[in-house]
Structure formats: structure tokens, C-alpha cells
Amino acid sequence: MAEAEEQETESLEESTDESEEEESEEEPKLKYERLSNGVTEILQKDAASCMTVHDKFLALGTHYGKVYLLDIQGNITQKFDVSPVKINQISLDESGEHMGVCSEDGKVQVFGLYSGEEFHETFDCPIKIIAVHPHFVRSSCKQFVTGGKKLLLFERSWMSRWKSSVLHEGEGNIRSVKWRGHLIAWANNMGVKIFDITSKQRITNVPRDDISLRPDMYPCSLCWKDSVTLIIGWGTSVKICSVKERHASELRDLPSRYVEIVSQFETEFYISGLAPLCDQLVVLSFVKEVSEKTEREYCARPRLDIIQPLSETCEEISSDALTVRGFQENECRDYHLEYSEGESLFYIVSPRDVVVAKERDQDDHIDWLLEKKKYEEALMAAEISQKNIKRHKILDIGLAYINHLVEKGEYDIAARKCQKILGKNAALWEYEVYKFKEIGQLKAISPYLPRGDPVLKPLIYEMILHEFLESDYEGFATLIREWPGDLYNNSVIVQAVRDHLKKDSQNRTLLKTLAELYTYDKNYGNALEIYLTLRHKDVFQLIHKHNLFSSIKDKIVLLMDFDSEKAVDMLLDNEDKISIKKVVEELEDRPELQHVYLHKLFKRDHHKGQRYHEKQISLYAEYDRPNLLPFLRDSTHCPLEKALEICQQRNFVEETVYLLSRMGNSR
């Protein structure tokens, strides 16, 4: 049974969704479900004739004279056998403690649901309508009206006796009535009247427009939007009437109130019911269509429309065709629209079905966005309304969004969205990385991988590095530069790079990256060697930063070849770590570099390298004659005889003259 109901509900939703031949991009305003449980059982053996709605419960009348009280899920809570024939109307007061019932055989009952007070009367004609005073629970408001051929007002006197008075007759059967506050509105064959119960005056008559329609087949629909606004639907016509107070100067013999029609327009179909929805209207319409094959008129699915009333026309906001059971046999009079003012719930009542329409909530809005694959909007809607949504989770929507982007091939956008959607969930990050690996898109997700809080398993980072190493050395080098060295197993990556260098030993990108990996691993000697081989500008910074002077004692020539100026400055600045003697020894086979070093040493301090001044004479003579004479003048440790010998051998006249004069041989 439950499964059958579920299938029916699904069928109803599918039918509603397919209400238009072409799928609309407009989001529906309402959602629908069948009122099931006890209602299903009732309508299998009986047919619904009328219903009224209270905030706390529902009251359903049937063609077999039964009245059922139901909870809002449709479960039966109470049953009353009122008559053997059709129940025409049920009325409840605002408290929900008193109920009035009338039937086709002329029976009228008004009774307390929780008290013993009761009124019974049987008339000699069918009683079509009944309405109890909204405040019937109060002793001063024990009043109700009934309508058959005439409209009768019943009032209980101080002696607890009921007396009746005729409010109206002579214009055919009374077929509809609505009581709000002090005003009673009813419809007969000629039009709609409003009666002021306080002043005992009838204050208006609104004639019906289309007198060609049978009033018993196309009854008038009435509803009060508030205590002074009455909405009338009859045939295809809608009128919105406002009850206003007449100015004292205009009174004379006129009623103290009058009615102004503030809006009037035609609809496409016949009206079966009306209900207010904020400043809009919910309209239940009976639809007849002509078959293309037989050209015969037939009853189509009823429509539930939301419209925006304007002064002389209306704007359609939404329109849904509803597949209610037995719609093919129903007439306009078989449908009723009841509503709960407290919550925006609308009940579409037909003989074999009761359908509930509800305003769609934020969860429904997200459902629609997801169905339309508008994931970005769905995610935004969920974030804005995260306190109100019950069925959806932001994370689930986000994951669906990532999957959608991947399916569309928008891998970079999908990867970028992971940052926001996955946040600090390491397990989800790892799951998504493996998904990207399966589709060969590890590179796409690599720039967005977390590098701290959370930190993923080393294997994840290594997997991506290997992917780059196989196909993109530059990308691999970028990741090594950007990623902290503790994210992955350094030795694993070093070995992988070395394996690649076996195939391409001179690849500068790989060599430089290997040097960086050695640096992360504090293997500075190997790093320095690579930097020197590559003549990399960062070599001096590396030496200073990591105090690698002990590692460069045998690499002084390499450093000098790379950048003699920087190398000499560094060596002279760190004499305490690499002695002058050690440097000179290392440069023994490269006298031109030895000269550069000793020359700069002499410039800094004339005495520090005094033991090498004799050696420097030859070096200056060979590599830097312009600075030889200044050296001879400034050095106090230079052996003059040795210097004179070298200068005379090379025919350096100026230097020879200087040396001879210094030695006292002026002649």
C-alpha cells in the first residue's frame, strides 16, 4: 500500500513537472504531494465533496454523508456519520472548537468538538452552505448562517434558544458563503452580496458577469484576503473588492460602508477556487480542451496558477497542470481550493483526490538548481541559507559541482574549486587527487594542493612530482621551488631525478632542481658542486647562508672561474675560515687568478700578504704591468734586487729607474 502511494506521489510530481510541452527554465513556485494515509482509505470507498482547513487539523466531507477529522498528514482522528447523502459544506470557527455541517438532505448541525453544545435542524430543501461566526467560541458570538433557497442567520438568545432571521431570498440558491470578522459575503444566481452583521445592513451587490454559465455547474468562488478585501472568482472573471468606510457627510440613508472594486480581470480558464498568497493570487482552474483527432471537447487536467493582479489585467507568475485522479470525469464544481493561512499550504480537493501544494523552500530551490546543473548557484544558495536547509549539505553540493566540471572537461576550474569546497578535509583531498590521476589530470590539481593545514600523505605529493618529471621538467622545477621540502620523501625524488639525468646528463633544469633538492636535504656539498658546474648565481648566497666554507676549500678555482670578483671578496671576508695560504696554494696552477686574489689582498692591507710580495712582482709583470709601479712604491716587503732583475729582463724602463733611484744608484 505504502509503495503504491509512493508511486502515485512520484507520478503526480512527474505529471506536474511535465505540465508544459516544452521544459521551462523558470523555477516552479510550488511543490505538490498527495494527501495520503487515511484519505487514501476514505476515497477508495467514498468521494470527497468538501473540505475545510484549520491550522491544527482538516475536516473532510464525503458524498456518503461522513465527516472526517484528519491531521495534516491525512490520518483519521475522528469520524462523524452526519447524513446518508452528500455533505455540502463544513465550517469551523477560528478556535477550531466548533464545527458546522450541512448536507443535501437539508440537515444542519452545529456542535462543539470538545463540548456538549449542539444544534440540529432539518430543512425541507437541500442546504448548500453553512458558515459559523469566526468567534463562535465566545458566548456573545453564537451565530451562524445557512443557505439553500434563502440565506438564514441563526442567533442564540439569552435563554439559550435559537432564533432565525432571513438575510436574503428570491434570487435562486445560495451556493457560496465566507464569513470574516463582521462581514458575511455570499453568492446566489444573480451575484455577490456583503452583509455587515454589526449594523445589520447589506452594503453591496456585485452582479455576475457571464450569466450564460449555469451557476450550479460553475459556482462562485469567494475568499477574504483580509478583514476588508474580498476576492470573487466566477466563470473566467476575477474581482478584488475593498470594503471602505463612508464619510459621515455622505451617510444620509446609505450604509456606513461601501465596496470599491480595485482590480478586475479575465482569466484563460474557468475558476474553481481562489486563495491569497501575499500580494498575489493562487487560482485553481477547470480546463476544457478540444481533441485534435475527434474535435470534441474534453476535461483536461486542472491548473494551479499564481498570478499577480493588476488594476485591469493580471500577470502569470507560474502555472502547473495537475494530474489528479479522475480528472477526466470532473466538472468545474467538483474542484475546491482550501488553504491554511498560517502556513502557505493549498489543498486541491476533487472527488477522488486531495493534493497539497506548498511554497517551495530553500531545499527545493537547491534541488531545482542541481537538476538544471546550476551548481555554482546551488552552492551559493546553500552557503547563504546553511542554517535553514535541512536536506542538503554544502559539501555534497560542492562535490557534485566538482564532478560536473570534470565531466565537462573543465579540469582547471574543477581543481580550483577544490580549494574552497574540500577546505581542510585531508581525506577528501586525497580522494579527489586519485580521481584526477585516473583521468590523467594530476597536473591540473597540483597548483591548488594544500601545503600545510592540512598536509596530505607524502605519497600524494610524490605522485604528482613523478607525473611532472615524466613530461614537464620546468613544471617539476616550479613545484620543487614552491613546495616545502618536508611534504615528500626527498630521497625518493632525488633518486628519480638522478635516474632521469642518466638519460640527459646536461639538462640544466634537472641539475638545478637536483641542487635544490640537495639543499633541502642539507647535502650542501653536492648542491654546491652542481651550482658551480652550472655557474649559478645563487652559489655565493648558498655558501654564506649555510656556512659552506669547509666544502669550498678544494673548489676555489671553480669559484674564481665563475665570478672572480665575488669569489675574492668572499674569500677575503672569510680569512678566518679559509686562510690566505690555502687560497694561494689552490691557485698555484692558475697564476692569473692568484694575481687577482693577491692584488685585492694588497689593496685591502699592504702587510697581510707580505710573504707573497716577491711572488707578486712576477705576477704584476706578467698580468698587470700598470699596477706594478704602484705596488713597488707601496710595498715595504718587496725585495728590490729581485724586482730590479725582473724589470730589467722585461725592459720595464720606468719601473727600473724607480728601483735604481730607490736603491741609491742615481747615476
From TrEMBL:
InterPro entries: Beta-prop_Vps41, Clathrin_H-chain/VPS_repeat, Vps41/Vps8, WD40/YVTN_repeat-like_dom_sf, WD40_repeat_dom_sf. SUPFAM superfamilies: WD40 repeat-like. Residues 1-26 have a biased composition (Acidic residues). Gene3D superfamilies: YVTN repeat-like/Quinoprotein amine dehydrogenase. The keyword Transport applies. The keyword Ubl conjugation does not apply. This is Vacuolar protein sorting-associated protein 41 homolog. CHCR repeats lie at residues 568-667. GO terms for biological process: cellular response to starvation; endosomal vesicle fusion; macroautophagy; protein targeting to vacuole. Residues 1-33 are annotated as: Disordered. Residues 30-359 form the Vps41 beta-propeller domain. GO terms for cellular component: HOPS complex; late endosome. Keywords: Protein transport, Transport. It comes from the Eukaryota.
